[in-house]
Amino acid sequence: MMIEVSNISKKYGNFTALQDVKFTVNNGELVGYVGLNGAGKTTTIEIIAGVSYPNSGDVIIDGHSIIKEKKEASKNVSWVPELPIFEQDAKVLDYFIYLAGYYGIGKEEAKKKAEELFSLVGLQGREKDKLKNYSQGMKKRFALAVSLLSDPNNFLFDEVLNGLDPQGIMFFRDLAVKLKRENKAVLFSSHILTEVENIADKVIFIHKGKIIRQMSIEEIKSFTKTNIFRVVLGRIDGDVIKIAEKYGNPKLQGNTIFIENFNGNIPGLSSDLLNYNVIEMGKVEGNLEEVFFKLIGEQK
């Protein structure tokens, strides 16, 4: 019983969003799904959830094909998108009871579940509010409560940490670990790599629609001892890489330079980049962030 993603590909016109993506999420396993913006994380998760179809390949959920047996497959998977869409004028408790009906849960049972789940996600006392009065973080908490309604075996969380305050992030961390202990299969994407590293058993790296690596947390910790130095700049231009080349092998990601094999001359680097408004600089230790940027850099 698990999520099996079997060689799925997806195209939008001439653009290939996913190419031959294959991985599994076992019961009792927390799997992090990481990649740059536009890498294909959301497209993958939407296909697993059954709201989008691949051009080829399939997804098997607890033995059922999401393409050939969508109704059966969808029964046992719960999905929280990055930006949940709800009826904004609805009162929270009424809407929860309405959604429970889709799972065959009656009004009285739904009220009991609401009391339990709203308490769990920290929304007790706000049940009579309209959803339009909820913050983004509260809407995300509500979406998490809805995801737990039918007690499925499999969970998909797409950038669920976005919009959550530190307390909300801690709650999700505890919830994910709880689901793992209950032998659930959990796939979650996030840009907060430290949180992925904190709770994941395995991390899947996707880049430009292709899976480039799958690694356990133990493998990540022992993967590389490369000396990488990170510099976050307020502005960049065509000369900044040439300047950084004096100190190692630089790669530019947005407004951040990652210098591999850094020679250790921090005062010199800081002085040379003075006109670029240095926001932050420091060594990237042997962790998920270092592995992530090393793997992405190797693809260029």
TrEMBL record:
<dbReference type="InterPro" id="IPR017871">
    <property type="entry name" value="ABC_transporter-like_CS"/>
</dbReference>
<keyword id="KW-0067">ATP-binding</keyword>
<dbReference type="InterPro" id="IPR027417">
    <property type="entry name" value="P-loop_NTPase"/>
</dbReference>
<feature type="domain" description="ABC transporter">
    <location>
        <begin position="3"/>
        <end position="233"/>
    </location>
</feature>
<protein>
    <submittedName>
        <fullName>ABC transporter ATP-binding protein</fullName>
    </submittedName>
</protein>
<comment type="similarity">
    <text>Belongs to the ABC transporter superfamily.</text>
</comment>
<dbReference type="GO" id="GO:0016887">
    <property type="term" value="F:ATP hydrolysis activity"/>
</dbReference>
<keyword id="KW-0813">Transport</keyword>
<dbReference type="InterPro" id="IPR050763">
    <property type="entry name" value="ABC_transporter_ATP-binding"/>
</dbReference>
<dbReference type="Pfam" id="PF00005">
    <property type="entry name" value="ABC_tran"/>
</dbReference>
<dbReference type="InterPro" id="IPR003439">
    <property type="entry name" value="ABC_transporter-like_ATP-bd"/>
</dbReference>
<dbReference type="InterPro" id="IPR003593">
    <property type="entry name" value="AAA+_ATPase"/>
</dbReference>
<dbReference type="GO" id="GO:0005524">
    <property type="term" value="F:ATP binding"/>
</dbReference>
<keyword id="KW-0547">Nucleotide-binding</keyword>
